[in-house]
Amino acid sequence: MKIRTAIILTIISVLLFSCSSRNELPDTGDQPTTAAGEPTNLSPATQPLPDLPAQATASALAAAPTLSAAPDGASSTQETPKPANCTAPADLTPALTEGPYWKEGSPERTNLIDSGMPGTKITITGYVLDGECQPVPGAWIDFWQADSNGNYDNNGYILRGHQFTDADGRYILETVVPGLYSGRTEHIHVKVQAPGGPELTTQFFFPDVAANLSDRIFEPSLVLSVEERGGEQFAEFNFIVATR
Ligand code: FE
């Protein structure tokens, strides 16, 4: 009887020890796996984040302030657009004679076309630049010209106007193509002055005008490149001026 009791107690002890050992398996370390080797029944809180997505998230967060700040940062580092057709050091725009018809006190305007004015419309745009091809904001530009019949308004200010270049050194002039008058080819007179710089007086000319060949003032480097679209003309011209 004692022997049987001892055997039963021994069996119970072995069973208890076995159960106790399983419960002491560490929570971490070798994780229980399925037959396929994948983790089983891990709670979301204890599931390790996959390495790659975690790194990507960290990178995205690190990059986020830069990305979100990019528009502001970009505006602060954006350079003023520069004309492609200027190579420093650039030659100054040649000066030409003023002629007899300049008048002081022209109105400030970029469009010289009055209602009903005859002629072919032309829009001339460009920059005022210094010899290093840097835009000159606030430069004064004064235009005056004959009408499409070759006549100047010496009493008033028809086809006369001045303006100032914008913050990027740009100007725009809307006017009509001037006509010929005795001894002269088609031309538009202009004075340009950078703030604090000397005044430049010169003229624009037009391409493919027969009278260019016989005009004693004509200067080939001052011929506009004119494009025609929809019955209007468009041209670009950059002035290169001294700034002091
Ligand atoms: Fe003239």
Describe the structure.
With 244 residues, the chain is an alpha+beta fold. The termini are far apart. Helices cover 20% and strands 22% of the residues. The longest helix is centred in the N-terminal third of the chain and has 27 residues. The radius of gyration is 41 Å and the shape is globular. About 30% of the residues have low confidence. Fe (iii) ion binds next to strand 5.
Keywords:
244 residues; alpha+beta; 5-stranded mixed beta sheet; 4-stranded antiparallel beta sheet; 2 helices; 22% strand; globular; binds fe (iii) ion
Largest sheet: 5 strands, mixed
- Termini separation comes to 125 Å
Helix content: 10-25%
Low-confidence stretches: 6-77
Q: Strand-residue fraction?
A: 15-25%
Averaged pLDDT? 77
Per DSSP E runs of 2 or more residues, the count of β-strands stands at 9
Structural class: alpha+beta
Rg over C-alpha atoms, rounded to the nearest angstrom: 41 Å
- Elements, N to C (H/E): HHEEEEEEEEE
Summarize the structure.
Helices cover 20% and strands 22% of the residues.
Helices and strands, with pairings:
Blueprint: H1 2-23, H2 51-77, E1 121-129, E2 140-145, E3 160-164, E4 170-176, E5 187-193, E6 199-205, E7 225-229, E8 232-236, E9 239-240
Parallel strand pairs: 1-8, 1-9
Antiparallel strand pairs: 1-4, 2-3, 2-5, 5-6, 7-8
Bound molecules: fe (iii) ion.
Fe (iii) ion (FE) is lined by residues 99, 101, 184, 187, 189.
